[in-house]
Request: fold
Amino acid sequence: MELASKYDPRAVEEKWYNFWLEKKLFHSEPDNRVPYTIVIPPPNVTGVLHMGHMLNNTIQDVLVRRARMMGRNACWVPGTDHASIATEAKVVKSLAEKGIKKHDLSREQFLEHAWEWTHKHGGIILQQLRTLGASCDWDRTAFTMDETRSESVTKVFVDLYNKGLIYRGLRMINWDPKALTALSTEEVVYKEERSKLYYLKYYLADGENVDVEPLATDDREGNIVHKDEKGYYAVVATTRPETIMGDTAMCVNPKDPKNQWLRGHHVIVPLVGRKVRVIEDRYVDIEFGTGCLKVTPAHDVNDYNLGKTHNLETIDIFNADGTISEQSPLYVGMDRFACRKQIAKDLDAAGLMEKVEDYTNKVGYSERNPDTAIEPRLSLQWFVKMQHFADIALPPVMNGEIKFYPEKYKNTYRQWLENIQDWCISRQLWWGHRIPAYYYPSQNPDDTENFVVAETAEKALELARQKTGNTNLQASDLKQEECALDTWFSSWLWPISLFDGINNPGNKEIEYYYPTVDLITAPDIIFFWVARMIMAGEEYLHKVPFRNVYFTGVVRDKLGRKMSKSLGNSPDPIELMAQYGADGVRMGMLLTAPAGNDILFDEKICEQGRNFSNKLWNALRLITGWQVDKGDDSNNQATKQPSNEMAVEWMEQRMAQVLEGIEKDFEQYRLSEALMASYKLAWDDFCSWYLEMVKPAYGTPIDRETYDATISIFNRLMLILHPFMPFVTEEIWHALQTIGKDDEQAAFINANYSIMNQHLPTSVFYDQRTLDDCDTAREMIAGVRNIRNTRGLSPKEQLELFVVCGEGKMPNNRFDGIVCKLGNVSIIQYVDSKVEGAISFMVGTTECFVPLKQNIDVEAERKKLEDDLRYAEGFLASVMKKLGNEKFVNGAPEKVVAVERQKKADAEQKIAALKSQLENLK
RNA sequence: GGAAGUUUAGCUCAGCCGGUUCAGAGCACUUGCCUUACAAGCAAGGGGUCACUGGUUCGAAUCCAGUAACUUCCACCA
Reply:
């Protein structure tokens, strides 16, 4: 079999993914093994794969594949989220392009379009995950709006309503004037903005007067009264002058000395001409602006509260879309921002603007519509009472039943739960789960409680008849709530609803797969999703939904900027995988991704992954090219080198040692470290050292035993690497399984076995002495190579090596064969004392000499020795200082002192050796 | 305004329950090599006052306090 010198991932990756699918190797059914469950954070159904998904899903796949290879029944459940706001916005936009307005359609018609859109664009992302190698159980693919999940949502809504945990009420909510829906507080992101602070004149109402004279300057205590030719006036600072049409009061702090003169008066809202009271409330910050606050109860949360306390009128001057409403006396129909500009001009023209200052404040935007400033709006919405949920969700995280990686998010989590606000769950959207509330006709137009909540219309009718006492009510009299639910109201059930644990409690699957083990997600949805899943889990199963939460970082570009479409700094993952192979990209992602840290992604890192695949591939090429001693054929009989035996022994020990580290890394979710350790084990230890140790000379065969050992080691390396790089390892593993097999056997193996359900090697006891001895040998080899390198000697020129071995000491020569082979040393001799006319180097405290035929550059040697000597003497001095310190000798533990004494002895020995070598040069 | 985190080599990070010659890794870099597995490679190298200041200690990258810079979360004073 002739293998190409470059590994080509394309064909290989497709081949094996299809093989895995065909063999249903990702599929899981409950059995008697220990389950390992992960539920995917469902991506938007119409979304496409971005680098964040790549990172997140690579990590999940690594964990799932590893668990599977550890003999657990691994089940990774995939699915998508209906993402109500985002998807509805996309559908509305696409309809608009066809000239169709959403509200020209009925709900049913719109939903038809939405489903069509979903079917057309939906699931692309799941296809893309296959390219990545994700080993999801695709048979279980779910959708937050499929039947099972929808039923669960309805059921939970009804249940929580009946428990009194869901209510409907008039509240100040966050309104998205573009999507035309309410949002939860979590869906508002605040952005700092440069804006203006407008100072407006509110003249005292006609006929009112004050008996205070204006002061000439503002820097005196006492009333600061403004007066001009038109009369007395107060100055109000605002960033939103367009809301003055909704002003129904002005407020001052009763303790504010500047504004005492305004108490009890009325002022005239500029331009509007409305006469409003001056109210007093300690809420007002005396230091801000002039200490006078305009009060617009309809358009600001705090003002709304003031309105309630002081019994103020509420004038809603905005339409749902952010234009000025009929309730306003002016500017009706104008957009809020256009209005702001206009009103500023008009105020100025009317002489009602005292001044305008530059000002920086924070403005809330919709998380899903980042261009739309949200508007506080008074509105009847549905809410979940959250205190109860906070109470049940806090303990499992605080007491470690659920572990967060990194741990710092515990704080964030606690902080949020301790200041929890009720969750606004109704959205004025059609794409989503329709709220199962049904309104019956009511005589009283102000009645907001004329509804019942039930899972079906039939049950609702029954309830409505009971509630109203009107047995004549007909199904047609009931109208279902138009609003849909927040997307997260379905996502929070995800780990339960995926196993049908809401509709069918106690079923075999939920009992087996729940709780899941690991959740891999981004920290920005800790409140949206992570916290709420814990709440739902505790509420419905009295069990946490997962044991560990691994928070990935944000994927940024190499300059640390967030990846975004507008910056164009986000590589297309599919293209990346085409270029570097899925394995290469996976490795690139993981290498830069310690838990919780943002990752600065540079495409170049994928090269490292690709190169690594290629390295492994070439190791395979090397091994498959070897001729093996057939044993019975005397012409082809390879004698087993003792060095080969040592090589195998060392490699086995080394692998056991590294495995121990990898296991620890996984326990602590240090995936990039585990990968790096595996990488070095394969590249450095196996390829650079081990294979060079056992590699037969050109044209000569390798002995059977070493060959088998090599295959076995290579095999295990593939197993270790498989979770990280599933494709190349499967390919090589198969090649290794089929070496020496006839075509039929090979075909059988290829068709029936996969690396992915082999058992992962585990760490075993290893002999540290073997590892140390080999390290010494490797240092000797490096020393010899260094001599060649610095003196321009060919690697082909054989050298001799003399090692000083103290009298009576046994030379440590187990790896001599290897030193000879890799250092191209003809002979190693152990001697009692220094060798004349040779280059020296030290390995630890051992002196090594390499005689050279050519002349030695005495000056250069001297300089080098002197440098070493200086360093050793400095080192000795510092050790001596420590040992001379009585407090140290008495205070430090015996072990530490002993170490220092050993250091002293070593240093002295080294110094003596260096000195004698220097002497030698003369 | 409140809280948390970060600061170690050119870059990205590990080390941080104080004590191995402790200052590390990968990449990048330098030098020399197309040595029949691999130039997507091989070999050998260079490189850091562990942000700063002080303290605790026989001993500090590691513990404590403060300072500075950056990041994130929460709050939302118009």
